[in-house]
Amino acid sequence: MTDGNxxxxxxxxxxxxxxxxxxxxxxxxxxxxxxDQGRVAHAYxxxxxRGVGKTTIARLVAKGLNCSKTDVPTSEPxxxxxxxxxxxxxxxxxxxxxxxxxxxGVDSIRQLxxxxxxxxxxxxxxxxxxxxxHMLSTNAFNALLKTLEEPPPHVxxxxxxxxxxxxxxxxxxxxxxxxxxxISQAEITGQLxxxxxxENVSVSDDGLAIVAIAADGSLRDAxxxxxxLIAFGGDQVDDETVASLLGMVDRELLFGATKLVAEQxxxxxxxxxxxxxxxxxxxxxxxxxxxxHLRALLVVATIEKAGEILHLPEDDLARLREQAAMFKIxxxxxxxxxxxxxxxxxxxxEVPRYQLEMVxxxxxxxxxxxxxxxxxxxxxxxxxxxxSGGSGPQQTGKQESNExxxxxxxxxxxxxxxxxxxFTTPADRGLAVAPPVARPSPVETPPSxxxxxxxxTESILKSPSESGNVxxxxxxxxxxxxxxxxxxxxxxxxxxxxxxxxxGEAMVKNFVDxxxxxxxxxxxx
Length: 525
Fold this sequence. Notes:
- The structure is a single chain.
- The chain is about 55% helix and about 5% strand.
- It has helices spanning about 10, 25-35, 55-65, 80-90, 105-115, 140-150, 170, 185-200, 205-215, 220-235, 240-245, 250-265, 265-280, 285-300, 305-310, 315-325, 330-350, 350-365, 370-385, 395-410, 465, 475-480, 480-485, 490-505, 505-515, 520-525; strands at about 45, 95-100, 125-130, 155-160, 175-180, 200-205, 235, 450-455, 455-460.
- By secondary structure, it is of the alpha/beta class.
- Helix 5 (about 105-115) runs parallel beside helix 6 and helix 9 packs parallel to helix 11 (about 240-245).
- The radius of gyration is 46 Å and the shape is flat.
- The protein folds into 4 domains: about 10-180, Rossmann fold (3-Layer(aba) Sandwich); about 185-245, Helicase, Ruva Protein, domain 3 (Orthogonal Bundle); about 250-365, Zinc Finger, Delta Prime, domain 3, CATH 1.20.272; about 500-525, no CATH class.
């Protein structure tokens, strides 16, 4: 049994020196050089997700500024002097930590400004660490502006935030901004291995890798999860314990579901989901992990050294490669899009089982895509050799002759004495040209208005222009096609009836009056 002074791993393993910080090498190097060179800024802003070292780095800078082992700021604070110990225990009077999440008002900042006017009580610098800075009110930010822009020479501000976009730009521009990135899975796993070794805890590398994945880039979260595993399993923690305690889905379920989808086994899918429900598996978490599994299939299908990205055991990578061979990359893309669109429905549904069953059945029934190259090759083989095999359409000599006649007739068309001056006809180039066709002699047409008697019926002859014909007289008399194109005059009786009816219409009457010059009547309408 442990005593009452037990510290959780996250606090016990908090870095005490810059070289103990994990995953932020560039920022650590920059700050260390600034301390050694005496180029200390009056304000810093550290941003990033939870558990990546924002407050830890701020405290290390405060230690480097005030370590009593040296007369000047240093990048290697001793961690043993009074100043370093008090800063680590958050009881140094010259290093003030303000929780902006609970003290958001302007009064807290006014009090801070008042304290900043005075020189340090004992150390070289008075340091203000404002945690969760984005929680400050607008009035509090405005009250901080003047002091932040021109602070006393003995004052250094350090802002820590998870949401830098919520800080006023006027405040952020007065600070040196250092965005802290997520810590990689490999670095988290390595740190957990060191902790487990010192704490005499046996955890497999695969189990620690699962913890690192669940931590999602936060070392503090990973340390807290490891603390939970030790409390549950004692000195021996197996992989099954890790997966069950963290609420993660067994990888065997992911491989099994993917196999059923590839085999298009709808009955097997329904039985599979029923088994997960009976075991109490979180179906929404299963959908999320299945998305990650599809992404892993895509990685192993496109990258030779997939282990550098996935950080999985070689046995799992081999199984992933075997399953990736069952799908085309386009199929994986479509499956990921379909599942990601249904993930939210599974989460929000009162009966997530139905949603999961349907989406898995859709994935199984989804038609597989074939590469266009294979389809083209298949069509060529079925058609007997493709374009080079002689199966394509052949142009006959008659078609070529017709095309030649058309081009010759177009090039020789003349609509005036100088219409084609300066142009070369096919005949000029020595090409064969069809002989000219003799045009029929024009037909003598009776003069317009002459009365002609035929079979006892008298009729008045009209010229083509008067009758509205668009075909010349000789063509109309000798060309049957032109004869068919001639507009047919409606019967005279029909015209008279239409005219009598139209005369009663106001619009027609006005139009007739306009033609006769009676414009006054039109204006009255």
